[in-house]
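hey can u check if this looks right to u? its 67 residues, i copy pasted from the old doc so theres a chance i mangled smth
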Amino acid sequence: MRMRMRDITRSEIREALGAPRSRHFFNTKHGRTNVRHRLSVSGRTIVVSYEERVEQTVMVNAVREKG
């Protein structure tokens, strides 16, 4: 039996964005900053891609890594 994947929550995205800045990296292909983060509760890994403008995060995309 296969488990159904649920949506990524805002709190999970905030947890990933709160990861130490040393774990954030700039993706030159897309011109955005990415952070790969293992969620503390589920143990799954998500990748959050975002843009920052004047100390404010303005655009966020989050995907769950397969595996």
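Helices lie at 10-17.
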